[in-house]
Amino acid sequence: MGSHDTSRPLPFPVSRRTLLRSLFATAGVLAALSSGGAFPEAQAGETLLTAIKERGVLRAGIRRDNPPHSFIDDKGQWVGFDVDIAQGVAEEMGVKLERVPVDEMTRISYLQNGSIDVAVASMSHTWKRDDAVDFSQTYFWSKQTFLVDGSKVKSYDDLVGKVVGMSRGSHAIGNWRGWLAKNGKTLSPDQIVEFGNKQAAVEAVRQGAIAGYAEDYEVLASYAKKHLGLTILSSQAIGMKQDGIGLRENDSKLRDAVNRALQQLQAKGTYDVIYDRWFGPNSAMPIPVEERIEVWPNG
After folding, report:
1. What separation in angstroms does the CA of 264 have from each of 114, 267, 272, 283?
2. pTM of the complete model
3. CA 201 – CA 215 distance, rounded (Å)
4. What is the phi/psi pair of residue 128, to 5°?
5. Where would I find the beta strands (DSSP E) of the chain?
6. pLDDT digits (tens, 9 = 90+) for 34-92
7. Comparing 20-24, 91-95, 184-188, 264-268, which segment has the lowest mean pLDDT?
8. pLDDT at position 248, please?
9. Strand partners, 165
10. How many other β-carbons are positioned within 10 Å of the β-carbon of residue 190?
11. CB contact at 8 A, 151 and 229
12. Which of 55-59, 188-192, 204-208 has the lowest mean pLDDT?
């Protein structure tokens, strides 16, 4: 599935683009031009929900590098909490699920250019992201902290003034800046290194290239279990994590449908089954449930 590079200039003036939309919307010509062949199938001002129902498929952007939310397991299977949530939402909407690989950056750009309908990609709802896309209700709650070499770092104070790593595009960057400012600490520009690959960030901690790597608690815990000597500053948090399903801007019909699906998963007990599979007491990554999806009255 192709994606459109939004940094390139439009192939023709906006006025002509508007004219072409009115002339060729039915044939989908503009959709092909604007999305590199992705065919969003819904024009401006229309709900994408209609197109999803007509095609019978929900195209969900899901990550492959973010255990236990979504990753490729030892058997080569694409699995994880977000994978199961996306499957559950699709089933509640009465359609099939198509999984589309995304990362920290493309999960938003793919929504904007129509390559995906929703992003179920461990995406915390922040003000900055809300300026670019819409979000569903929160469906997962956690916190952000640091993965460190336990023999060298015991607290956040030990990280002050040192080079630390963050995932590219992560709001952990803002959270760390906020924690430092709140505690009267300064930060120079060269003290944060952004990584496009989580494995590389973890390895940088192991090799001592960076003093710590900030990410979501459950993701760090997954990596810490695989590397002797690495530990998590679990008693502290630089910020909270509240994941929502990403949606294109200003499509209330689709947002309502996704929220209804999430609420149905909660009301039927399906959400609890999924949560226990990946974060329950008998899972590889136990995390107590802190919140529950709000279920609205049916009336």
Report:
1. 26, 5, 12, 24
2. 0.80
3. 10
4. -65, -45
5. 57-62, 65-66, 70-72, 78-79, 96-101, 118-119, 134-149, 164-167, 192-195, 212-216, 230-232, 239-247
6. 444 444 455 656 899 999 999 999 999 999 999 999 999 999 999 999 999 999 999 99
7. 20-24
8. 96
9. 193, 213
10. 7
11. yes
12. 188-192
Tokens read off for 28: 């989908």
DSSP sequence for 99-131: EEE--TTHHHHHHHHTS-SEE-S--B--HHHHT
| Rounded mean pLDDT, 224-247 | 92
Confidence of residue 130 (pLDDT cuts 50, 70, 90): very high
Contact of 270 with 88, CB cutoff 8 Å: yes
**Cα end-to-end distance, the chain, whole Å:** 41
DSSP 46-109: S-HHHHHHHHTEEEEEE-SEETTTEEE-TTS-EESHHHHHHHHHHHHHTSEEEEEE--TTHHHH
What residue type is assigned to position 111 of the chain? L
For 58, list phi and psi in degrees, rounded to 5: -105, 115
Contact 98/287 with Cβ under 8 angstroms? no
Backbone angles phi, psi at 206, to 5 degrees: -60, -40
Residue environment code for 88-115, b if the CB has 16+ CB neighbours within 10 A, otherwise e: bbbbbbebebbbbbbbbebbbbbbbbbb
Amino acid at 80: G
- Give the containing element (helix H, strand E) for 267: helix 252-268
